[in-house]
Specification:
The structure is a single chain. With about 500 residues, the protein is of the alpha/beta class. It is about 35% helix and about 15% strand. α6 packs across α8, α12 crosses α13 and α12 runs parallel beside α14.
């Protein structure tokens, strides 16, 4: 039974009330910037105002306005109130707030369109309680609110600027919540991990955190320039019945109309002829300031060497998107061959034969899913780890191999998330965990959570529960998390 009481903390912005639940102090919807509403909708995040009285941070959280998640078929759905006033943090601090503790900051994924730090599946209570760390979740602008990139209306990459503003607030204020501002680790998953890579590659972000964990970053994603985002805003206006040149209407429209435009655009037939193409409507863009070049290219040139990193991916990342997807289910061998030739040119037939030999069952849909996953996630993740080691920083690499009991899901994108947060009472709603052994889930969670948080605490993931985990370094060693945890020497294909 949960035992709860109130707690008041003093910050430089004012007094703030949270609640102590089973010896973890919990704070929800803590503002790190001015509300991004009204005239601030498409502005860079502004420092929050101080408040009078006591700010109530005990209520129910909320997530940014968004459409349904594209990964709910494997992750499940976690309903939460949506609010355009979304520049806030959720904070969990174990024990007494007077003792400085390491800080783990989590940046959620969701294809830059969905998710939120307040989602129940990302609840940090157990993570904080189990590890003794202060856990902070960032919510940031998504979709058209965060990644519209329109000249004279919406600066590019607002969602990442929000995250940077949050990290500055955390560095300045987390001491009030028992966090150590000199021991901050940022952990991102999927889109959130891509944003961490962006920050690693930008010199202005140095010092915002001290270590970084990247879970399944889509580093193979190719970015467009900011100027190329113009047609998307015009399309949103057209489906709502407005002149496509009336760009300023997007500043004034109610947020539910923006979400309606997204729904109408998503309902339109796909224009790409490439089966299973990884294409997202709203993404970061090259802007010559925050993102001057592809972040992986910058990392390969040594831009991220200032920060020790731990990075990994799931074995079958793309199964989260191919599961029950007609495009993959109906794919023919001839179409598959064409895609391998598109990717590998004259080496296509050889690569396809090797793929068939390495997969059971080797259906066209599964092999295409493997191809997409390797291109977008698995191969670039190894390149990232390799580059970090070559340029002198500590780098640890993992692969999450534990697979769902549900046929067709495998070790898919997002499957490692419940093992980090450990809230099995909440994650039991995830289809990807249907039929799993509860003790097996808990035991693997203890090891995975323990390794990642030990890295966050000390810069080294090794602890008593794991085999020795060496740095990636010149040996190119990767740790595999599964029912049996073991190492593998990596090679580039």
């Amino acid at each position: 039974m949960a035992v709860s009481s109130s707690i008041i903390v003093e910050t430089s912005f004012g007094r703030l009330k949270g609640k102590n639940v089973n010896d973890v102090c919990c704070f929800s919807k803590v503002p790190y910037a001015e509300p991004a509403i009204g005239s601030n909708r498409f502005k860079l995040p502004q420092s929050p105002d101080c408040w009078n009285g006591i700010y109530d941070a005990t209520g129910v959280g909320s997530v940014p306005p968004q459409p349904p998640s594209g990964t709910s078929a494997v992750m499940g759905a976690y309903p939460m109130p949506q609010d355009e006033n979304c520049l806030h943090l959720d904070i969990w601090s174990p024990g007494t707030i007077n003792v400085p503790k390491p800080v783990l900051v989590f940046i959620h994924g969701g294809a830059f369109m969905t998710g939120g730090g307040s989602l129940s599946c990302y609840d940090g209570h157990m993570l904080a309680r189990n590890t003794g760390m202060v856990v902070v979740n960032i919510s940031y602008r998504l979709g058209p609110l965060g990644f519209l990139a329109q000249p004279d209306l919406a600066p590019p990459n607002l969602g990442i600027h929000d995250q940077i503003a949050a990290l500055k607030w955390i560095q300045h204020t987390i001491g009030s919540f028992g966090g150590d501002p000199d021991n901050i680790t940022v952990a991102g998953q999927s889109a959130g991990a891509y944003c961490v890579a962006v920050m690693l590659a930008n010199t202005s972000c140095r010092g915002l955190f001290h270590r970084a964990i990247l879970m399944s970053p889509p580093l193979g994603m190719k970015l467009s320039r900011a100027e190329q985002a113009k047609p998307l805003a015009a399309a949103m206006l057209r489906v709502l019945g407005f002149d496509s040149k009336e760009i300023n209407r997007l500043q004034e429209l109610p947020v539910d109309q923006l979400m309606k435009a997204l729904k109408l655009l998503q309902a339109q037939p796909a224009t790409s002829t490439i089966p299973g193409e990884f294409s997202l409507p709203f993404t970061p863009v090259l802007d010559d300031e925050l993102i001057a070049c592809d972040p992986l290219d910058a990392i390969k040139d040594g831009a991220g060497a200032w920060c020790d990193t731990l990075i990994g991916a799931a074995r079958e990342e793309f199964n989260a998107f191919s599961f029950q997807n007609p495009v993959f289910m109906q794919l023919t061998e001839a179409q598959l061959q064409q895609e391998f030739e598109r990717s590998y040119g004259e080496k296509g037939p050889y690569k396809l034969a090797a793929a068939h030999a390495a997969r059971v069952p080797s259906t066209p849909g599964q092999l295409l899913s493997d191809l997409r996953g390797d291109d977008i996630f698995n191969q670039p993740v190894m390149e990232f780890a390799d580059a970090q080691g070559k340029h002198g920083s500590k780098s640890y690499l993992y692969q999450f191999d534990w697979q769902s009991p549900v046929q067709g899901i495998g070790a898919c994108h997002c499957i490692d998330l419940p093992f980090l947060f450990g809230r099995w009472d909440i994650w039991q709603a995830a289809p990807m965990l249907n039929g799993a052994n509860e003790q097996e889930l808990q035991d693997l969670s203890d090891l995975f959570q323990g390794a990642l948080t030990e890295f966050a605490r000390t810069g080294n993931p090794n602890n008593k529960g794991l085999p020795v985990w060496p740095e990636y370094g010149g040996e190119r060693v990767r740790l595999h998390f599964d029912r049996r945890i073991q190492f593998q020497m990596c090679s580039f294909s």
